[in-house]
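The records we work with from here on pair a chain with its fold. Taken together, the tokens spell out the fold as the letters spell out the chain. To see the layout at work, look at the sequence and tokens printed below.
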Amino acid sequence: MKYRSTIVYLVIALLLGGLYLWDVRSEKEEKAREEEARVLFPEAVSGKLERIELTRGNETIVVQRIAEDASEDSWTITSPVETAADDFSVNRITSLLPHLKHTRIVEREAKDPASFGLENPALTLAWKTEEQQGALSVGDESPVDKDFYAMKGKDGLVFLLAAGDKEVLDKSLYDLRDKQLFTLPSGGITRLELERPSGSWAFVKSGETTWAMESEPDFPLDSEQVNTVVRRLTWEEAASFEREQADALEPYGLDRPAHRIVLSDGDTTEELLVGDPAGAEGEARRYARLASRPQVLTVDESLLEELPASLEELRREPRKDETPQTGE
């Protein structure tokens, strides 16, 4: 009798356990379906995106994939100017798009989009693959959630978009364009030329990490300081772009630039010209241009401050077994 009771209890326990597991599994599946329903553009597969269009106020920026292989994440800006894109910034947008989710539905059928800032949205993003396309409008900030009202296309559904996601998408032309001044990698540079009001010097690589003065090879040059200058120059970015095509260079002090910086790897030479102070007092920027490009841009004053003002700053301290040398 006890044996039969044990069997009955065991069967009941198994049934209850099965019901519990089924309930937990159903709950997980329901949550997964809810999460999947929150995804706005699952079809916007990052590797297949061909075109992105961002409109912010009166400015529309068009970014186009340029790689023949769709797996390559290289981009160019085609409007409002034609210029290279900052691939990292563009790829942040393309990586987010297929995973972009709303945080909460506000209205399923908006009767007054203007009340959410969606009649004339502050930001509109349109994307396109070979077979699919979509659009997202972002309006005002919610006073309660601090997220942003948004709408997918024109379907009338108003939802909230996380502030962090909006920040990734809301990029200016400056944010999305390539800002790097020099394209040569620091390890491949074999010649550095500096021309400043205080003097002009040229340095050539004499070893894997060592440098020598071009005109005076025996000068005790501090190679580590030269390497630091080269690395800084290859990391430097434009602080702003003032003119895409300047009719005259005199207003910027670039007709006769006070500073000239040249990097070369033996095959390619890149030259930066730096002119007058730019911007309001306290901004500490200078007008500049790359000799091979038409734009007038600005660079931070700190770039010049970290360059040697005299050759003596680059003199290597003599070792104990060396006889100190004098130089110009």
About this structure: Helices lie at 2-38, 87-96, 163-169, 173-176, 223-235, 301-305.
